[in-house]
Amino acid sequence: MFGKGGNGQGIVSMTEREKARREAPLRQVETYWRGLCDGTSVPLRSQVDPRGMESALENAFLLERIAPSMAKIRVAGSHLNDLMGMQVAGMPLSSLIAPGDRERFGQGVTALFADPAIVRIDLRAEGGFGKPELEASLILLPLRSDFGDMTRGLGALISHGRVGRTPRRFQVVRMHISAAVSGTPATPGLAAAEAPKPARPAFEVREEQRTFTPAPAPVGTSDEAQPVVQRGHLRLIVDND
């Protein structure tokens, strides 16, 4: 660190500065995504133009949702290929995650599409022979398909350290999930489905109230009061005649 003055003011952490420099591709991808998003709706996949994030393409990738907590990589920059030692297009994104952390990682993928949400994850690579320390940062951003459903995603991953022997898989160190847009969700019908409903009793019976009106007396009958017929329970009468 360096600074000026004796009270600690103006001190800048070189570690934080270096981290900010390393994560520049993630910020560029997020900034580009926000430029497509008007704050109230998630951008369409067809709106994404690689030229808008040209200096981050090595770290960027596109996703497609294949299950509530799973997404596959459709297109990926060279950095993901380098980490896995193979072409990753068509592979589940969770292939980059250590098996023990995939359930937790799946929670972030679920939120990405269902909320929708922006998901930021700090990662640490599993160690082993020929596998030096390696840290990484990942960002996932939601996209809509051309049909309007929330099944696409834009992401970026950067790592710090020597890759070593591949494939490298990562453990989830921390995860931060935040709302992607404000106001009504972009998916049609989602707001109505999630709207709170008033509490109702578990079982409720309502009986319709009706006013009894006596039938008019037949023409030609006397004005004497007609007896009131009280109807009781139904009875079965058998006539054997």
UniProtKB/TrEMBL annotation:
Pfam families: PAS_5 (PF07310). Residues 1-23, 207-226 are annotated as: Disordered. This is PAS domain-containing protein. It comes from Sagittula stellata (strain ATCC 700073 / DSM 11524 / E-37).
